[in-house]
Design brief:
By secondary structure, this protein is an alpha+beta fold. Helix content is about 25%, strand content about 20%.
Length: about 425
C-alpha cells in the first residue's frame, strides 16, 4: 500500500566484451528479486588489479609528456582553462557566477547521475542530523541559479565547479575529483528542439576548437580537431552496429570523424537494455521524440584522442526537462518520491525557467589539449599507488603523487 519504495540494494560491476556491466538488484515485493543489467560506455576492467593504467602502447617508452617542467605545466593548465572559459562565455553568452561546494540532501539539488552512486556526505558539528552533500555536478543547482539571479532568456551562467565522486572509476581518464565548467542557459519554450540543441553544441565546439588552436600555437603542439563537428544518434548507431558495446560504437564514430556529438543518451531500448549510458531522470530530456524518429534532446561531445587512440568524452549536455517530461521520466525510473523535493516542486510549479545546459570537464579537456596519457598528469587526484609507481618508472609523473617511499597520499593510518 505504498509503504515500500524500491531502491538499489547493492551495485557491482564486471567486464564483458570490453564494456563494463553494472548490475544491481531491486526488491519488487517480498518474494521477488529482479536483476537489471546495464551496458555503460566504459573500458575499466575491475578484474585487473592494474586496470587503471593507460593503454599498453602508451607504456614502456611509447609516450613522452609534452611538459617535463611542472611549473610550466601549471602555466599551460591555467592558459587552457582561461582560454576555454572566455571562449565559452563569448560563444554561448554566459556570465561567470560562484557556486556551492555542498548542498543539503533534503533540497534535492544534487545530481543523481545513474542513481546508484554515493555522494560524499557530512554533518556540521553543531547541527547533528543535518546532511550536507558534495554535489556530483550542478545540473539542478544551475537551473535554480538562473531563477535566483534573474537571468533573462538567451543568456546563461557558467561556474568553476569542483566536486567529488566517491564511486567513480579511478583510471587514466577518470578521477574521484571532478572539475568542470558547469553552464546553464535560459531558453524560450519554443527553443526546446533539436535545432536549438545543435546550434548550441556548434557554439561550444567552436569554443573548444579555437582553444585548441591557441594552445597548439603557444606550445608548439600539432592541432588535431577538425573544423566541423559531426552529429550522430544513438538510435542510428544501434541499428548500424547492433552487437557492438556502447564504447565500441563511440570508437567507431570518433575514429572516423575525430569529433562527434552523440545524440540520445539515457533511456532503455525495447529489450530493456540501456540505450547508451545512463542519465538521471530530472535534468536532461531523454524521451522527447525528434523529427528523425529517435528520442532525446541531449548528447555527449566525443573526440578521438590521438594519444590514447580511443574515443574521449569532453562534455555532456542537453535541453532540460519541462514539467511534463520530468513527471514521465521520474515515473519511468520509479522515483516519484522526488516530486516532494524543493527543487522538483519549483520546476513542477513553473518557478524554474526552461533551460539548456551541461558540463565541460576541465581536467579532461586539459588532458586532451596537452596530449597527456593520464588525467593525473593535469590534476591533483588520487590513484592506485601501484599504478602511480609503474607510471613514475616509465617517466609519467602524476601531480603530487609518488614523491615519497611511503607516500602520505596513498594510505591513512
Amino acid at each position: 500500500n505504498g509503504g515500500y519504495k524500491p531502491v538499489p540494494e547493492r551495485s557491482f560491476m564486471h567486464e564483458r566484451d570490453g564494456a563494463i556491466i553494472i548490475q544491481f538488484s531491486i526488491r519488487i515485493d517480498r518474494n521477488t528479486t529482479s536483476i537489471t543489467t546495464i551496458n555503460m560506455a566504459c573500458t575499466l576492467n575491475r578484474d585487473d588489479p592494474l586496470g587503471g593504467l593507460p593503454p599498453k602502447h602508451c607504456l614502456n617508452g611509447g609516450y613522452k609528456p609534452v611538459f617535463t617542467n611542472r611549473l610550466q605545466l601549471e602555466e599551460a593548465l591555467s592558459f587552457c582553462k582561461t582560454t576555454l572559459e572566455n571562449n565559452l562565455k563569448e560563444n554561448v553568452n554566459l556570465v561567470r557566477v560562484s557556486a556551492p561546494l555542498f548542498v543539503t540532501r533534503a533540497s534535492g539539488f544534487n545530481d543523481n547521475l545513474n542513481g546508484v552512486e554515493r555522494p560524499a556526505t557530512f554533518e556540521p558539528r553543531d547541527f547533528p542530523g543535518t546532511h550536507l552533500e558534495v554535489p556530483f555536478s550542478l545540473a539542478k543547482w544551475k537551473r535554480w541559479a538562473l531563477h535566483y539571479y534573474g537571468v533573462e532568456a538567451g543568456k546563461g551562467i557558467v561556474t568553476d565547479f569542483r566536486g567529488l565522486r566517491c564511486d567513480d572509476d579511478v583510471d587514466f581518464t577518470h578521477s574521484l575529483y571532478v572539475d568542470q565548467f558547469d553552464w546553464e542557459k535560459h531558453i524560450a519554450v519554443e527553443d526546446r528542439n533539436i535545432d536549438y540543441l545543435k546550434a548550441t553544441v556548434k557554439a561550444i565546439y567552436k569554443a573548444l576548437y579555437d582553444t585548441e588552436q591557441a594552445v597548439c600555437k603557444k606550445y608548439g603542439i600539432d592541432a588535431y580537431l577538425p573544423e566541423e563537428l559531426t552529429f550522430a544518434t544513438s538510435d542510428d548507431m544501434i541499428k548500424e552496429h547492433p552487437t557492438a558495446t556502447p564504447k565500441e560504437r563511440e570508437n567507431i564514430l570518433c575514429e572516423k570523424h575525430k569529433a562527434v556529438f552523440f545524440i540520445g543518451i539515457g533511456g532503455m531500448k525495447p529489450d530493456g537494455q540501456l540505450r547508451h549510458d545512463g542519465r538521471a531522470p530530472d535534468y536532461d530530456d531523454w524521451i522527447t521524440e525528434r523529427p528523425d524518429g529517435g528520442h532525446g534532446l541531449n548528447g555527449d561531445l566525443l573526440l578521438w584522442n590521438p594519444v590514447l587512440k580511443q574515443s574521449f568524452e569532453i562534455s555532456s549536455m542537453g535541453i532540460r526537462v519541462n514539467p511534463e517530461v520530468l513527471l514521465k521520466q521520474l515515473d519511468l525510473c520509479g522515483v516519484n518520491e522526488r516530486k516532494e523535493f524543493v527543487w522538483h516542486k519549483m520546476l513542477l510549479d513553473g518557478t524554474l525557467p526552461q533551460t539548456i545546459g551541461g558540463g565541460i570537464g576541465q581536467s579532461r579537456t586539459c588532458q586532451y589539449l596537452l596530449r597527456a596519457c593520464h588525467i593525473g598528469e593535469v590534476q591533483h587526484g588520487w590513484y592506485n599507488p601501484k599504478e602511480v609507481e609503474i607510471l613514475k618508472k616509465d617517466g609519467i609523473q602524476l601531480l603530487g603523487l609518488g614523491e615519497f617511499d611511503a607516500d602520505p597520499s596513498a594510505k591513512s593510518s
